[in-house]
Amino acid sequence: MTQTTEQSIVETVTKTSPPVVVSGLAMGGISINEWVLILTAIYTALQVFFLLRDKVYRPWKEKKDAAAKNA
């Protein structure tokens, strides 16, 4: 294959990928709105997890480790 042919194939695949994914998800029984809702919920849960880990758990663990080291 020449570089032009390979580039043409890549461009075609790139242009057709989003509609194929959307159609596949819709045929799977979950609409795009539901996917957005699911992914937003996952993203929010991860943000809460990282916030709690950084602001609550790590300071608590550091205090606990420091107390154990001094004892």
Automatic annotation (TrEMBL):
Any one of the GO BP annotations: viral release from host cell by cytolysis
Keyword Membrane in record: yes
TM helices/strands, residue ranges: 35-52
Entry keyword set: Membrane, Transmembrane, Transmembrane helix
Protein name (Swiss-Prot/TrEMBL): Holin
Transmembrane helix is among the record's keywords: yes
